[in-house]
Structure formats: C-alpha cells, structure tokens
C-alpha cells in the first residue's frame, strides 16, 4: 500500500491505487503561492510540508491496509535553500519567478546560455536554479552563505521527512547535469559564475535509492518511523511514466499551470547549434531521457482570461462551442507569464497579443483564440522535441473536452488520456514499487484510458492556422523588450 504524493505548485495531492492502477483513495489541499512585486514568486517551505502532512494523514485514514511506503514527486526548478536541518534560510523561489529576467537576457547576449546548452542540453530561463542562484549571489549573498543545500521542492520535503540531503537526477538535469554521464558539468557551473557555490549542489541519488522516515517525519505524517520513502522523479517525468509513455518517440502533453510537452528518447545527442531551449531530463532508467519543452503558457492563461472577462471556468466549454475553428479571425499569442517563455525558445521579454479583433467579436472568439494559440504552442514544442509515436495527455486542461479536441485537431493526431487524473502520483508509485522490488504490471496500469480522435477537416484547417501562428510569432519576437 504505497501512498503517492504529488507536490504541485498550487495543489498537493495524495493518492492510493489498487493493483490495477485505479485510484481508491485520494486527498488534495492547496499550497500558497505568493506573487510579489518585480515578478517575484515565492513559497513557504513549512506551509508546503504542512500540505504533505495534511493529505497523507487524510488518505491513510481512508484505507484499511497499513501503508508500506511513501512515493514523492512534485514541481521542479526554482530554488529551495535550506540549512543542515532542512529549515528554509529564505522563502523558496518558484520556477515561475522573474526576478532574474534581465540577468538571463544578458546571458543570452553574452553566450553563457549557449555555452551551458552545448554542455548539458538544457536551455536556461529566469526561473531555473542557475539564474536564481546567480541573482542571489549578487543581491543576497548572505543567504547563500547560510545555506547548506540549494535544491528543489521534492528534495526539500524529503530532507524534512528523512533528514537526508539528496536530489533526483531529473531535478538536477536543469541546468548543470550532463544527462549522458548523470554528473554535474563543472564548466557549466563556472560559466554561470557559481564555482564558489558548488558545495550547495547535492550529488544526484543513484537509481532505486530508498530513504526512510525519521522520527520527526513519522510524527508529522502519523506513519511508522523507518517507513520507506522514494524521492522523484519530479512531476514532468513522473507524469510521463504514470500516463504510459514507454517507447522512444512517444510523448505526453501536460496541460497544467504550464504546458509541458515531453518526448521519450534513447539518445541525448543534442544539436549544439539549435535553439538553446527545453531540456534533456534523466529518467529512472539509465540511457533513457525525456526531451522536455515546458512552455510557460497553460491553464494560468485560462484563469487570466476568465478573470478578465468575468466568466467562470465551467463556462469555457460553451464559449468554445459557440466560436468556430479560427475564432472568426481572431488570433492570439499566449505568452502571459511575467517571466516570458522558456520553450521551445527562451525569451524573458515574450508577451501575449490578440489581433484581428473588431466590434463584431465577443468573449467566445477571444477565449477560443487563446485556447487555439496554446495548442499551436504545443505543436511548436512537439515539433522541436521530435514527437513521432503515441501521444498521451494529462493535467487540468484536458478535463475540458472542447479544449482537448482543439489540441487533437491542431496536433493532427489522436490523444490518449488516462482515466485517473493523478498520473504524477501514479508515476511516483510505479518508480517506488520498482525500487522496492515490488513492480506492478505497468501495461495494466496504463490500460485504463480513453482516446480523443482528431477531426480531419479541422486538422487541415489548423495547418494554415499554425503557419499563421508561426509568422505572427516571428514578427512579434522582433518587437519584444524587457
């Protein structure tokens, strides 16, 4: 009886699955995300740890069998600075953060981003650890002096529950890990001016590493001391595993706060002259990688348009149905994040736009244009990542049948959607079971799903729409300024 816990940016979820991979108990609770001036986005480690305790205690109380292990996954990137006891030395800085926008732009102009990409296959963006740590080294050096480890959300929680300082290779993949050797590239660290802070980086855990609850963690969760705990991979690769991505060329679309597009590959040969964006994520299987393009567009854009137009999220379906493909000529670029875009290109100055509007257009056209533009962004990401096999999808966005149909039509391929939405926790549990020597039937776990077919005439229409999107994007990139 393994409890899977997915520590998202705004929501923490705990799930227990039966032997066929069907959820039999789950609990959720929100996390606090503080949006501050200057594009700063922070979270409180104590509050996040508290959400884990809340959902684990709740879901454990709903099952009759004793809990045998805890499998953790959660948000990646950002910086979670801690001392030797696992206490935060400052609020955690989220992957959504934009305080390092100007620094990232300078690195792009100076060739630092390109140099790091050539060594690790990872494109840097304002919310990645390199940019944030370099910013802090310039503006809050005393904070880094107090810290013992600069890690991520999942390993921060692991330290509080087990006392261990660790990091999963998936989290460490961006931006300093060479995915081929699964070791840090020291020259990449030096390129970012962080040699003096090298000691803050925990060495990546080996595959199938198992930790154990210490007395403090056991008391916090209401579980036995010594209970096995696994840590990672973080939510992007965990979702790929949980959804059923198995063969090279297969991909997964996560329509969440961000639009994460990933493709499984058995080669980490990256084009050193290509766009320095996206990342190669190491997976639990040595020799397999996920080419990830986690765009900054996603359901946060839908929340924004709902607030702007004074509508509720459930109204989106009806609005999409009342505007035809092409949104009656309204077009959009979806780059609403204050920290710009990070995949399939990196530009901290990227901003959204709507065009083609007239007095004849209404809310439905604006909503549909935005949803179509996010689907075009997904196609752009998958083109860059090399999608060639089956496509899976998960995240809050695919709960909308109308929006999922737009994704299928724009991508021109069927989309397989697992019936259970907790694919991140599911992936973490599958990894934990393998580490504990109790593997489940992964094919059985992936069998409970439905497929959304694309509409051929819509797919043909969106071919030209995608060309228009690309042209609009190319024109806009020449105008963006920080």
List keywords for this structure.
482 residues, alpha+beta, six-stranded mixed sheet, 17 helices, 19% strand
Strand fraction band?
15-25%
- Give the N-to-C terminal Cα separation: 50 Å
Oligomer: single chain
Q: Give the overall shape, derived from the CA principal axes.
A: globular
Mind explaining what this structure looks like?
This protein is of the alpha+beta class. The protein has a domain of 236 residues: 2-Layer Sandwich (Nucleotidyltransferase, domain 5). It is built from 17 helices and 22 strands. A six-stranded mixed β-sheet has the order 3-2-1-6-13-12, with helices on both faces. It has a five-stranded mixed β-sheet with strand order 16-17-15-14-20, sandwiched between helices. A three-stranded antiparallel β-sheet has the order 4-5-8. Helix 10 packs across helix 15. The radius of gyration is 21 Å and the shape is globular. The termini are far apart. The mean pLDDT is 95.
Ordered list of secondary-structure elements with their pairings:
Blueprint: E1 2-7, E2 11-17, E3 23-30, E4 34-35, E5 41-43, H1 45-60, E6 69-74, E7 80-82, E8 92-93, H2 101-110, H3 112-120, H4 129-139, H5 141-146, E9 149-151, H6 153-162, H7 169-172, E10 177-178, E11 183-184, H8 186-191, E12 211-212, H9 215-221, E13 228-231, H10 235-243, E14 251-255, E15 259-265, E16 279-282, E17 289-295, H11 299-309, H12 316-321, E18 331-333, E19 353-355, H13 363-385, E20 391-394, H14 401-411, E21 415-418, H15 423-435, H16 442-446, E22 449-452, H17 456-477
Parallel strand pairs: 1-6, 6-13, 14-20
Antiparallel strand pairs: 1-2, 2-3, 4-5, 5-8, 7-9, 10-11, 12-13, 14-15, 15-17, 16-17, 18-19, 21-22
Domain Carbohydrate kinase FGGY N-terminal: 1-242
Protein name: Carbohydrate kinase
GO molecular function: kinase activity
